[in-house]
């Protein structure tokens, strides 16, 4: 922290005296206030930030007292575990009673600013906020301030998620706990006191999982699957459609043949905006996918996400998959098999509707329909 005393010369009074001001700086943040004293500029030594000549003793004594009080406020705030900001020191020095926002109020404000994220991601943030709110109410701390959210409370939240919500995934825990840190970082930027130890609390993200996807033999087993149950056969067709389009579940259920495909030189292309990323997925309407569309008169059956994944799990067990088959695995399968077939990374990324794809070999570059046409003919 640095404290600077200086003259505000643009507020010179009729006597030719300028008010003395104090500026407090911490990192990139600043706050300033009037010292309630004036002095003739010729009696001010800016290099030493002190008065000289007439009345020097009185003014310099007042400056020393201000300086001592400012540093006392800083030391006390640090001892209380608060995030020390110039605004906090200014408010304490001036004796201002500031109505502080609660942690949950700041979480809501932080969420309001996430206008760039898609609706699905926003629902995840809202669900995490609701569960954190339930946790705080259980501990009678729903009015807790950001500066009172301690590392110990963060550990209690982790235990609550594991015991009450039966959370076992470290990745899932990381997202919850990091949401708390994100809110605290947001508060810090707004000069709202936070517990710095909590804001800097290290959270284990968990090990990166090995991608799971179907190989060609497993795809063949899926294609050959037969059942007298109509819902399982519809599920199989939707699964194969995902394999040949790379659609996520939400894109599968919102696919509209008339609006989401275009024709170029006699060839049909899928051109659909992905719900999650907002990116456009561009890919040929492969014959296998067209055959499925024709079967349903170009209107795919709609199955709820929960039932769809349950039916996929049943099919996976019947055909002998060593893992539980899900909609997400089928999306990954499309990308993985396209890469194995020699389709360039950039094209696969465009086909899947990814905003980026990073590998050890190259970074994604957005391509257009002409590049896809050149590859697929």
Q: What key phrases describe this protein's structure?
A:
single chain; hpI Integrase, Chain A; alpha+beta; 3 domains; three-stranded antiparallel sheet; 377 residues; elongated; 12% strand
Describe how the helices and strands are arranged.
Elements: E1 2-7, E2 18-26, E3 29-39, E4 44-45, E5 50-51, H1 56-79, H2 86-94, H3 103-112, H4 119-138, H5 151-164, H6 170-189, H7 196-199, H8 216-223, H9 230-243, H10 249-253, H11 257-260, E6 261-264, E7 267-273, E8 280-284, H12 287-295, H13 305-318, H14 327-340, H15 345-352, H16 369-376
Antiparallel strand pairs: 1-2, 2-3, 4-5, 6-7, 7-8
Helix pairs in contact: 1-2, 3-4, 3-6, 5-6, 9-13, 9-14, 14-15
How much is the average pLDDT? 86
CATH superfamily of the largest domain: Intergrase catalytic core
CATH topology heading of the largest domain: hpI Integrase, Chain A
Order of helices and strands: EEEEEHHHHHHHHHHHEEEHHHHH
Q: List the uncertain runs.
A: 355-366
Q: How many domains?
A: 3
What best-fitting shape do the alpha-carbon axes yield?
A: elongated
The end-to-end span amounts to: 65 Å
CATH architecture of the largest domain: Orthogonal Bundle
Supply the CATH class of the largest domain. Mainly Alpha
Question: Major sheet: size, sense and barrel closure?
Answer: 3 strands, antiparallel
Strand residue percentage: 5-15%
Number of helices: 16
Protein name: Site-specific integrase
InterPro entries: Arm-DNA-bind_5, DNA_brk_join_enz, Integrase-like_cat_sf, Integrase_catalytic, Integrase_recombinase_N, Tyrosine_recombinase_XerCD
GO molecular function: DNA binding
Keywords: DNA recombination, DNA-binding
């Amino acid at each position: 922290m640095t404290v600077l005393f200086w003259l505000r010369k643009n507020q010179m009074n009729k006597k030719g005296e300028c008010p003395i001001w104090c500026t407090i700086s911490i990192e990139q943040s600043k706050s300033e206030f009037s010292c309630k004293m004036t002095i003739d500029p010729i009696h001010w030594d800016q290099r030493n930030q002190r008065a000289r000549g007439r009345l020097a003793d009185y003014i310099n004594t007042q400056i020393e007292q201000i300086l001592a009080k400012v540093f006392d406020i800083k030391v006390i705030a640090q001892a209380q575990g608060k995030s020390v900001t110039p605004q906090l020191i200014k408010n304490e020095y001036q004796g201002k009673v500031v109505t502080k926002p609660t942690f949950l109020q700041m979480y809501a404000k932080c969420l309001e600013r996430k206008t760039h994220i898609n609706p699905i991601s926003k629902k995840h943030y809202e669900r995490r906020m609701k569960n954190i709110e339930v946790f705080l109410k259980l501990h009678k701390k729903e009015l807790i301030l950001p500066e009172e959210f301690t590392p110990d409370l963060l550990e209690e939240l982790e235990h609550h998620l594991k015991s009450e919500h039966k959370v076992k995934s470290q990745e899932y825990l990381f997202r919850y706990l990091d949401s708390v840190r994100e809110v605290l970082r947001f508060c810090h930027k707004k000069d709202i006191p936070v517990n710095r130890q909590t804001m800097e609390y290290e959270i284990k993200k968990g090990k990166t999982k090995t991608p799971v996807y179907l190989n060609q033999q497993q795809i063949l087993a899926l294609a050959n699957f037969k059942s007298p149950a109509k819902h399982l056969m519809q599920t199989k067709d939707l699964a194969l459609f995902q394999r040949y389009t790379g659609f996520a579940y939400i894109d599968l259920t919102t696919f509209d043949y008339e609006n989401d495909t275009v024709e170029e030189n006699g060839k049909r292309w899928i051109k659909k905006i992905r719900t999650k990323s907002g990116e456009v997925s561009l890919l040929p309407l492969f014959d296998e996918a067209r055959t499925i569309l024709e079967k349903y008169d170009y209107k795919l059956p709609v199955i709820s996400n929960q039932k769809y994944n349950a039916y996929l799990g049943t099919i996976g067990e019947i055909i002998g998959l060593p893992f539980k088959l899900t909609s997400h695995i089928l999306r990954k399968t499309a990308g993985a098999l396209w890469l194995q077939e020699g389709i360039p990374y950039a094209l696969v990324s465009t086909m899947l509707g990814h905003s980026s794809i990073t590998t050890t070999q190259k970074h994604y570059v957005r391509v257009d329909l002409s590049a896809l046409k050149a590859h697929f003919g």
